[in-house]
Every structure is written in structure tokens, then in C-alpha cells.
Write a structure and sequence with these properties.
There is one protein chain. The protein has about 190 residues and is of the alpha/beta class. The protein has one domain: 2-Layer Sandwich (Double Stranded RNA Binding Domain). It is built from four helices and eight strands; from the N terminus they run αββαβββαββαβ. Strands 2, 4, 5, 6 and 7 form a five-stranded mixed sheet that branches. It has a three-stranded mixed sheet with strand order 3-1-8. A hairpin with a 5-residue loop joins strand 6 and strand 7. Helix 2 crosses helix 4. The longest helix is centred in the last third of the chain and has 30 residues. It is elongated and about 70 Å long.
Length: about 190
């Protein structure tokens, strides 16, 4: 199955070289955080800085997922953070957003002919820091890190594999949302507007 995934990767890279934009496709239906309501900050601007550089080669596969962990952070910031001040700024910095494919051992011999093993594990990590330069020169920051993993069977289709990886990133982003919500309200309370 890895060869099929490599073919998909080659096609995506080819499509990118023929004129597709560097932006990822819009998020799939239901991938977002609007239902949670915004966190209003007493700053004039909010920006997202992606300091994670994807290697674009094995074992990393985050660049092949419809919504990468870094893109999920952009969606999170757009949906959850609101600038409601007149001065200062908040910066959301993506420190890590990797998804790695790890081959798993397979059942060998005759028994292997009748066994459908889990063939790959996908390990996702996401680390984000929120930095604030608030009114009156107040500065502060908070950071969180989350990790998740999932496996896929050796007979999984490309569409099912993509769906599994997207679900992995969605769960990872939900974990990040819960932790960042708490961390911002606890550590950056001086700029959180009620």
C-alpha cells in the first residue's frame, strides 16, 4: 500500500508543479471551531506564524493531508480568536506540526496470507505558542503541545487512508483547542475580554 501512497504523493507534487497554488484546499465540511465561540483578546491584531518547516519527504506525510496540522492551527485562530482592542497584538506560532508514517510489522508465513494486519501507524504532533504584546506594554505567552496516533490496515484504500489521516488531524486540533482555551484564559487573562 505504501507504493500507492507514494503514487498519490507524486501526483500531488506534480499537480503543484503545474501551477496549483501553495495554499491547501479549503477545509472539509465540519472541520472548524465556530461552534465553540470566540476568545476575545484586548489586542488590535492577531497573526499566525508557521515556523514549522515540513521536510516534504518520508517519513513525514503532513503535506499530503487535505488539512495539515499547521493549517488546522490557522483555522483554529480564525475561528476562536478575536482582536477587540485598539493596541497590541497576539501572535500564534506553530512550532511543530509533523505527521509521520511508521511501517508496522506484518504477519509472516502462511498465517500472513489470511491476516489483515495494521500496516502503518501515523504519529501526529502539534506544538503552538501564543505570544501577546498587550496594552500598556504588558507581554505574556503560553504554549501547549499535543500528540495523537492512528493505524491503518494493509488493505485500506487511498480514500480511506486520507480519511483516517484527516480524522487524526481533526482529533489533534480538538485536543489543541481544549488545551489552548484553558492556557489562554489562565496565563493570558490580562488580555482576555469577558
Amino acid at each position: 500500500m505504501r507504493s500507492a501512497f507514494r503514487i498519490l504523493a507524486a501526483l500531488l507534487i506534480f499537480a503543484g508543479s503545474v501551477g496549483a497554488t501553495a495554499q491547501q484546499a479549503p477545509a472539509p465540511q465540519g472541520f472548524g471551531f465556530q461552534q465553540k465561540g470566540p476568545i476575545a483578546l484586548d489586542v488590535a491584531a492577531i497573526e499566525v506564524v508557521d515556523s514549522y518547516v515540513a521536510p516534504l519527504r518520508e517519513p513525514n506525510v503532513e503535506h499530503l493531508i487535505p488539512v495539515s496540522p499547521s493549517a488546522a492551527v490557522r483555522l483554529w485562530a480564525a475561528d476562536r480568536l478575536r482582536a477587540e482592542g485598539t493596541t497590541g497584538r497576539a501572535r500564534v506560532v506553530v512550532r511543530d506540526g509533523a505527521v509521520k508514517e511508521v511501517p508496522l510489522p506484518r504477519t509472516e508465513g502462511v498465517r500472513g496470507w489470511f491476516t489483515k494486519d495494521q500496516s502503518e501507524r501515523y504519529e501526529a504532533t502539534l506544538s503552538v505558542e501564543v505570544q501577546v504584546e498587550g496594552p500598556g506594554g504588558w507581554t505574556g505567552f503560553t504554549s501547549v503541545a499535543v500528540a495523537r496516533s492512528t493505524t491503518v490496515a494493509e488493505n485500506v484504500s487511498l480514500a480511506e487512508r486520507e480519511k483516517a489521516m484527516l480524522a487524526l488531524v481533526q482529533a489533534l486540533a480538538a485536543d489543541l483547542d481544549a488545551k489552548l482555551d484553558e492556557a489562554i484564559r489562565s496565563n493570558l487573562f490580562r488580555v482576555v475580554k469577558l
